[in-house]
């Protein structure tokens, strides 16, 4: 394979005899090499085809900031996740994971862990991605010596979910957008409020709606009976949010012929209450 660009001593952009471009990784594989030279195949540890030149350029930018071991680790995690989830993951996951892991490890070393507000929802509704992410934490600890908190498993699980190539079709994306818009409108008019679209609570609410819409369209709503006790507690504590969530439930039944579970209704009430209280307080 001929070298087209050298990122650093360990990473290079190459082209094979069929003119297919790919990034190759390996300790010292580009050391004392120049563009046009051939790569020593014995030194190649990892390869992946680049979807675009812009992808290669973004990788180059990351390599200015992120150690090779993190880039290599992210490739291993992506390959593991693709195998475990039995799906093709978007190539952008390499970049997103490398960036995320690098900063997560750095924050942990400095005693600055970040809580993931969606952790319990991720554990409940994205069990497969979460279990894979737990394995990723073990891989991270093995490579870096840093044991990341459980919250990071939830963050990685969301990266995996977003990287599923089969979840971004235009028709499905439009349908998801319609659900998010309609449910947001129901909440808005129920409370008579306008949302601060830059607020953290609004963004959390929209994130939950997007994942909910995905599950609705894929028929993946969790139907394990739910936590009835928690449902009743939240219902009693947030009666206005309960009334609003019932309107959302009626909409889903009429438009999509889907029954929302108690778990879904519980999380809706919590998010609806949070976002509405913050908006009404302004």
From TrEMBL:
- Extract the SMART domains matched here: CAT_RBD
| UniProt xrefs under Gene3D superfamilies | CAT RNA-binding domain, PRD domain
Task: List UniProt keywords, sorted A-Z.
Answer: Repeat
Q: Which domain of life is it from?
A: Bacteria
Write out the transmembrane intervals: none
PRD domain location is 65-170, 171-282
What is the residue range of the signal peptide feature?
A: none
Write the protein's name: PRD domain-containing protein
């Amino acid at each position: 394979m001929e070298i087209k660009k050298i990122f650093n001593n360990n990473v290079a952009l190459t082209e094979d005899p069929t003119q297919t471009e790919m990034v190759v990784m390996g300790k010292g594989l580009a050391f004392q090499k120049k563009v046009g030279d051939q790569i020593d195949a014995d030194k190649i540890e990892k390869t992946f085809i680049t979807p675009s030149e812009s992808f290669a350029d973004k990788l180059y930018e990351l390599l200015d900031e992120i150690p090779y071991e993190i880039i290599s680790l992210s490739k291993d995690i992506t390959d593991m996740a693709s195998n475990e989830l039995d799906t093709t993951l978007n190539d952008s996951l390499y970049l997103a994971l490398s960036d995320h892991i690098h900063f997560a490890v750095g924050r942990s070393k400095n005693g600055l862990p970040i809580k993931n507000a969606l952790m319990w929802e991720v554990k409940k509704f994205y069990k497969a991605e979460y279990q894979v992410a737990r394995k990723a934490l073990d891989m991270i600890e093995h490579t870096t010596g840093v044991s990341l908190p459980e919250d990071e498993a939830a963050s990685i699980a969301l990266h995996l979910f977003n990287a599923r190539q089969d979840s971004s079709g235009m028709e499905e994306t439009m349908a998801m957008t319609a659900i998010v818009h309609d449910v947001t409108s129901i909440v808005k008019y129920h409370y008579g409020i306008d949302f601060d679209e830059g607020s953290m609570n609004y963004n959390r609410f929209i994130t939950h709606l997007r994942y909910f819409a995905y599950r609705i369209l894929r028929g993946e709503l969790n139907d394990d009976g739910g936590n009835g006790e928690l449902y009743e507690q939240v219902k009693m504590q947030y009666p206005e949010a309960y009334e609003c969530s019932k309107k959302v439930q009626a909409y889903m039944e009429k438009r999509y012929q889907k029954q929302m579970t108690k778990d879904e209704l519980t999380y809706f009430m919590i998010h609806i209450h949070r976002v509405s209280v913050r908006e009404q307080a302004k």
